[in-house]
Amino acid sequence: MVFSKEVKSVRTQTWIGIMSVASLVAIAGIFLKVAMSTQPREENYENITKPGYAIRRKYFWALLIVSVVCLVISVISFPYPAIMEAKITGEPVVVKATGFQFGWELDKDVLPVGKPVRFDVTAKDVNHGFGIYYHGKDGSLKKGIFVAQTQAMPDYINKLYVTFKDPGVYRIWCLEYCGAAHHIMTYEFRVE
Amino acid sequence: MDVADRSMYERRVSGIALGYGAITLVLFGVTVFFGVIMRTSQGEFISVRPDVLYEFMTLHSIGAGGSLMAGVMAVMWYTLRKHLDMSMNIMQVVFGIIGAAVVTIVAVTLLGYYGTGWTFLYPLPFKSAGAWYDFAPGMWLLALMCVIFAFAMSWIDVIRAASKKYGFSNAMGWTLISGTAKPENVPPPVVLISTVTAACGLLSLVAGFIVVSLMLIHWANPSYYLDYLFIKNLIYYFGHIVMNMIMYMCAAIVYELMPIYANRPWKSNKIVAISWNSAFVAVTLAYWHHLLQDFPQPLIFQFLGVFGSYMAAFPATVVTITGTLILIYKSGMKWKVAPLYMYLGLMGWAIGGFWAVMDAGFNQAVHNTMYVPSHFHTYLLVGAAFIFVGGLYHITEELGGCRDTFEDKLGLWTWFVGGYGFVLWFMISGVLGTPRRYAVQMPGTEIYSTAAVYFAWTVVFGLLIAIARYLTRLQSVKPLRG
Question: Which of B421, B384, B413, B422 lies closest to B39, judged by CA?
Fold first, then answer.
C-alpha cells in the first residue's frame, strides 16, 4: 500500500475522518447521558436551567474559539489562484485540461515531480469535476489516493496549482455528475 | 361552531395532517427504496444499467427531499394551527399541486429517461449525450416550478397568519431582539421559527423561480445564452436553503411538541429570537460552500461560504439542541416512541450538521466524495425524517389516543441501527476519497458500497415497520373514521 505522507489532502481527509467519528461519539454520548437522566423529575426547573445555561455559555465560548481557529485554517488552506500564486516559487508548468462528455483532453501527458504545475481546467459541454488521484509508481494501485480537485465549467477557467511530490501514475476522475457515463470519465498521466 | 361543524372541522384537520402525512411518508419510503436499489447496484449485488441508475438517483434525490419537505410541512401546519388561523383550503391546494407535480416527475424521469440528479446543473438538462428525450427537461422543470409555487403558497400562508395575529416584526422576533416587544405580542417559538423559516425559504423560492424560468426559456429557445456560474449560484441558493428549511421546520415542531412530553415550558425570548434570525443569515451565506471548487467565484463569496457554515453551528447547537437537552434533563418524561423519534432526530441533525461544517471548512479534501451524502443523509435519514415520523406518531396519540407497541420500537431501532451503519460507510468511503454519484464504483472502492448495502436494507425493514405501524395507528383516530 502506497500511502504518501506528502499528499496533503490525505492528511486532511484522515483528520476529517477522525473528527467525524469523534463528533459522532461525543454527541451520541451527550444525548445518551441526557436521555438516561430523565428520572426522577426535578420540579423546580430553575435548578436545571441555571447550571444548564452556565454550561451553555461555556460551550458558546468554546465553540467560538474552535470555530475561529478552524476558520483561519480553512482560509489559509484555500486552494485559490490568488493565494497559491503567493505560495509557489518559480514559474509553474501550465497544462490545459478540458473535460467533455465523457473524457478529458490534456495538452501534456508527462509532468515534472517537485515543480509547481498549474492546470487550466475548463469544459466543452457541461460541468465536470477535475479530480486528480495517485495510482502508485507503476499504476498498480487500484484505488487511487485523492490528491486535488477543482470544477471544470464551460466558459470559465479554473486554475488549479499542484506540486507533485510522488513520481508515478496519476488519473483524473470526474467529480461532478455529468451524465450517463460520468463514472467512466477518466484520463491517465505520468509524473517523472 | 355547532357540533356538526366542529366534527367536520376536526375531520378536515386530521385529514390534512394525517392523510398528507401518510401519503408523504409512503412516498418517502418509495423514494428511499429507489436509493437502496441504487446502493445495492453500487455494492455489486445486482446490476442496474448506469443510465437507469442515474434516473433512480434523480427520483431518489428529488423525491425523498420533496416528500420529506411536504410531510414536515403538514406536521408543522398541524402544530401551527393551535396558535394561528391557518388556511385549510390553501393546504389542500398545495398538496393537490404537489401531487400533480409528483406524477409528472415520476413519468418524465422513467418514461423520458431523465437523469440529471436533483441539482439539474445547467446545461446538463439540455445536453444529455442522447440519454433522455428533449421534452424531458422542460416537463421536469415545469413540474419543479409547480412544487416551487406550492411551497411558496404554504409559506406565504404561515407569514400571513403569523403577521395577522402578532404582526410581522413580532413574529420574526425583531421586537424581542430590540427589547420593544409587549408580552401579549410575543409569539410562541413554533410561530417565531416557522415565520423566520418561511421568510428565508421564500427568498430561496424566488431564486428557484428565476432559475427554472431562465432554463425553461433556454429549453424553448436553445440559442438563449445563460451564464453557467450565475445559474449554478441560483440553483444552489435555491436547493441548499430549501433542504435546510426542512430541518428548520422540524426544529419548529420540536419546540412545540417536546415541552408537552417534558411537561416544561419553552418560551420565546431574546436568545431564541437572535438565534433564529442569525440562522437565517448563516444558512443564506452558507450556500456558497457548494461553489468552493469553482475558483472563478469572487474570493469574498468563498470566504462568506465558509464563514456562514461555521456560523450556522451556533444557533443550531447553542440554542436549539442545548435547549432541548436542558428541557429534558431530569424532566421525569417517559420515553414514548414519538418524543424518542424527535430526540434522536435532533441528534442526527447535530451529527450531520457537524460533518457538514467540516465539509465546508475543508472542502478541497472531501467535496463531491461520498462524504457529502454521508452528512446530508445523517441529518435527513436519521434526522429530519425521524422528527417527521415522531410528529406523525404524536398526532395519532393526541387525536386517537394511540399507545406504543413493541413494533413501534422495533421499527425505530431497526431504522436507527441501519441508518447509522449506512451513513458511516458513506463517511468512511468519503474520507478515503471515493467519488460520489458513480453508477459503477471507482475500482478498489466497491467494498464500501457492499458493506453499506446490508445497512441500507436494514433501513428498509425499519422504515417498512414504521410506515405499517403509522397506517395502523391511523385507524384509531376517530375524526378520520367519521
Answer: B422
Q: What is the dihedral of CA A39, A44, A48, A51, to 10 degrees?
A: -140
Segments forming the whole domain that contains residue A38: 8-76
A138 and A116 within one domain: yes
Stretch B421-434: mean pLDDT: 96
Give the tens place of pLDDT for each residue, A65-90.
999 999 999 999 999 999 999 888 88
Closest residue of chain A to B265, computed from CA coordinates: A45
Per-residue model confidence (pLDDT) at position B54: 97
Q: Which of A43, A76, A109 is the last residue of a domain?
A: A76
The average confidence (pLDDT) of chain B is 95
Q: How big is the CA angle at B190 (ends A51 and B403), to the nearest 5 degrees?
A: 85
Ranges A104-108, B193-197, B245-249, B398-402: which has the least confidence: B398-402
Strands A116-123 and A128-134, sheet pairing: unpaired
Interface of A with B in 46-65 (CB under 8 A): 48-49, 52-53, 55-56, 59-60, 63-64
Residues A68 and A89 in one domain: no
Question: A70 with A121, same domain?
Answer: no
Report the number of distinct structural domains present in chain A. Answer: 2
Nearest to A95 by CA among A114, A110, A79: A110
Judged by CB atoms closer than 8 Å, whether chains meet at B326 and A52 is answered as yes
Beta strand A145-152 pairing with A110-111: unpaired
B44 and A CB contact within 8 Å? no
Query: For residue A133, which of B449, B432, B428 has the smallest C-alpha distance?
Result: B432
Residues B27-65 have pLDDT tens digits of: 999 999 999 999 999 999 999 999 999 999 999 999 999
- What is the domain-level CATH number for residue B319? 1.20.210.10
ipTM of the complex: 0.95
- Of A32, A54, A76, the one marking the end of a domain is A76
How many domains in chain B? 1
- pLDDT at res. A3: 43
What backbone torsions phi and psi does residue A30 show, to the nearest 5 degrees? -65, -45
